Amino acid sequence: MTVRHHIGDDLLLSYAAGTLDEASSLLVATHLALCPHCRARAAAADALGGEMLDALPAAAVTPELWQNVLARTQDQPETPPAILATALRPRSDIVIPEPLRSYLGTDLAGLRWTRLAPRVQQITIDIPGCRPRARMLRFEAGTRVLEHGHSGRELTLVLHGSLCDGAAVMRRGDVAETDEGTEHQPQAGPDGDCICLAVTDAPLRFKSRFARLLQPWFGI
């Protein structure tokens, strides 16, 4: 397996800095479990951040500052260990790697899919307090997604099979990042079902009027 489509620098730096939302962090961490190249980039970003902190001049710590730090720490939601711990020993012999498998509670065989459209199934991943939405999507081989645009950012990580988007063909481990300026109609490849993890921070803009009418029920 050779990953050819990687996460962008902005996304990777936000992940390394701990400022990325949990749903997007889940996708990035799962990609890192499959991509040695981006694991090396993430390690370099962590090292750079450490050097920048070391270069800052030492400041006097007053009792008031210490109390403010403690208060902010207590106010922050706890980040799940699965997000903090990037896979150190990635597995390529399973479809769903960590940390995604822990969020789903099972591997591929145990997933319970719900029908989203003909030849398309989904599983929503509940992440309390997180605005972007994460979901698993399963397209039967050859299925063409309804043509749509975007009101925000969409991240798609291919876990099994392939996904064709214009001239790009994405396979296991590849990531596609689209934004408001993108209109497209991806299609699952002919080599079996395509299974993806998708994260969106705003509703899609479907071209089909029928799809727009059903969109509130689909939550996509």
Task: Describe the protein in words.
With 220 residues, this protein is an alpha+beta fold. The chain folds into two domains: 76 residues, Arc Repressor Mutant, subunit A (Orthogonal Bundle); 114 residues, Jelly Rolls, CATH 2.60.120. 34% of the residues lie in helices and 24% in strands. It has seven helices and twelve strands. Strands 1-2-3-11-5-8 form a six-stranded antiparallel sheet, covered by helices on one side. Strand 1 and strand 2 form a beta hairpin. Helix 2 packs across helix 3. The protein starts with 8 loop residues before the first helix and ends with a helix. 26% of the residues are buried. About 4% of the residues have low confidence.
The largest sheet is: 6 strands, antiparallel
Q: How much is the radius of gyration in Å?
A: 19 Å
What CATH architecture of the largest domain would you give? Answer: Sandwich
CATH superfamily of the largest domain: Jelly Rolls
Portion of residues in helices?
25-40%
The rough form would be described as elongated
Helix tally equals: 7
Domain count: the total is 2
Strand order of the largest sheet: 1-2-3-11-5-8
Average pLDDT over all residues: 81
Strand content: 15-25%
In CATH, what is the class of the largest domain? Mainly Beta
Q: Poorly predicted ranges (pLDDT <50, ≥5 residues)?
A: 84-92
Order of helices and strands: HHHHHHEEEEEEEEEEEEH
Domain ChrR-like cupin: 134-199
Domain Putative zinc-finger: 10-39
InterPro entries: Anti-sigma_ChrR (IPR012807), Anti_sigma_zinc_sf (IPR041916), ChrR-like_cupin_dom (IPR025979), RmlC-like_jellyroll (IPR014710), RmlC_Cupin_sf (IPR011051), Znf_put (IPR027383)
Organism: Rhodopseudomonas palustris (strain ATCC BAA-98 / CGA009)
